[in-house]
Amino acid sequence: MSRTDALSKKTLSLPPIILRPTRGWATLNLRDLWLYRELIYFLTWRDIKVRYKQTLLGAAWAVLQPVMTMVIFTFFFSSLAKISTGNIPYPIFAYTGLLPWGLFSKAISDAGHSLVMNRSMITKVYFPRLVIPMGSVLGGVVDFAIAFAVLIILMIYYHFKRIGGFQFNLTPAIWTLPLFLLLALITALGIGLWLSAINVIYRDAGYIIPTLTQFWLFLTPIAYPASMISPKWRLVYALNPMAGVVEGFRWALLGQGDAPGPMVAVSTMIALIILISGLFYFRRMERSFADEI
Amino acid sequence: MSDLAIRVENLGKRFTIGASQERYKTLRDSLSNAAGAPVRLARSIFQHNHDNQSSESTIWALRDVTFDVHQGEVLGIIGRNGAGKSTLLKILSRVTEPSEGYAEIHGRVGSLLEVGTGFHQELTGRENIFLNGAILGMKASEIERKFDEIVAFSEVEQFIDTPVKRYSSGMYLRLAFAVAAHLEPEILVVDEVLAVGDAEFQRKCMGKMSDVAQEGRTVLFVSHNMSAILRLTEETLVLEAGHLVHRSATPDAIDHYMSMGYSEESERTWRAEEIPAAAAPFRPIAMRVRDLKGRVMDTFRSVEPLTIEVEYSLEAPITGLRVGIYLLTMRGEYVFTSFDTDQAEQYERFGARPAGHYVSRCVVPANFLNEGRYVLAMNASTFRIKRYFQDEHAMAFTVDGTGAPGKHWAESRMGPVRPRLNWEIITV
Fold it and tell me: What is the ipTM of this complex?
């Protein structure tokens, strides 16, 4: 009997949950998301844990993917097309762009498919659905960290070899690097939310992702420097938030030239617009996920 | 009422017909609808919902359901397939939203709609306990505290650091249930989880369930297993075609449910809307029971054989099809299961059944069933591949014991069968 009393006391202290049909735009309900923060952690951890299971090379893939792209880019864009990157060796130039790009493209692809992949959870248990794409986006951070270690090795190598007069000098700009990482994650989450929610209803979204990523890659200054874009178009160019991210990354890591301030400002604004609209769109569609998926 | 746990008022859920056949749309459909009108395409992405009833027909999986549950009550929910039981539980556990009405829930809801949700094959038992616990809404600290208890309950101690893909199905199930059973919500919603596993495991699950009930938690329990419902619940709701048709003490509710819609004579026909699209190409037509003279009846003499027949058509050939019956008592205990291709030679002959119109018929011998009322269920499936159609309560009939062995004593005999056995009495 005392147990029952304890239970009812606990219950009464909580406000009742009201279930009724809702329509139109929904609130973000960040409180629920906060209550389930551990689930974001566990989903991220699961993604990381199982990613390279049953592969021969394991986590080496996190390095091989950007390194191979870097080699291909170096051959085509530097050796053949003779794109000039000043006194920065082309491989380093490309790799500093490929780092945030790899994080971004993997995150939008994983997040875009995440709801459909976790269909059984969605149709059986309640939890804020936002944790699923969030976990997918964060799952890429470990790969990013591994690939980043390779960049450091690469930079040290070029520094001591003095290839092309390259000198690795750390500037205070390096402290802004986490902010650009955050900007990449915000952009990826925003796009990922849109794609994942659309993919529940229209599986086309899943098929669009590879094409979208490829196209987007060339709209981003990875293979070529943003300085190739004429200055009067550069802010329009920065409407692609990844342009700001990549430029910011290079500036923070290589410490050359002026801070790409205006570009980053435009990119940040767009990234935030994508994220916030994505959050609201996701919440709006969320109520039909279990029925539609 | 201060001790209310759940209050449901005029709750309803509407689905679009065809959603089950066409699981998702492609953008092309929307594009062709929106040809020349990009605005409509944008709208379809933003306002994807079922409110345009004019163009799509809808069905109500649940409608006008109103009831209260008090704290500490253990409530059973029964009904045929498609009566709306699962939909109701999904709404109450917040998986899906109601289309109309209102529900109020006091306390944390834990749902056991399916055990092992979110289990990952590549992760070890230990890792899956944490992951699954988090999905079910437990805090990591809470899982850590109960970890040993969960492992002990699941009996997979030696394999706790082995990936679950190497588990036997029994081990997998025990682990999954163990995690779910250690949730401590105020309200527990359980759907059919006890229908799996071996007898020993089921006994354990039932024990855990009654512990939960005795702790003063509120439990909503859906099952087709009437004896489990009888054992665990005090009161039961009966759902029929999305409506709440009956609420009473569990034994009465089960009697009501078992006799529901069986007043007509002993023939059952299936209307088109009762056959799910997934049944194709199998189409059930009718089920009937005939007496010795071939008449379709409702009551049969236990001393005479009776014939059970299932009429159906196949719109396309099916390989490995078996059409069969389950015979159950009114309390839901199985008496037997039998399929039309149980005999090896029958299976050889009808292994591949061409399209056509069929009757599968069997004879239940005389002096087999005890007096009482029985329920017939029907199943058409291919073993381990596909269940085309199943009706758990297709029809009912009565057996009259006049002339049965032992009838000269006016007493009721225990058990569903009443065989005429040749007793020998010898003096030694």
Answer: 0.82
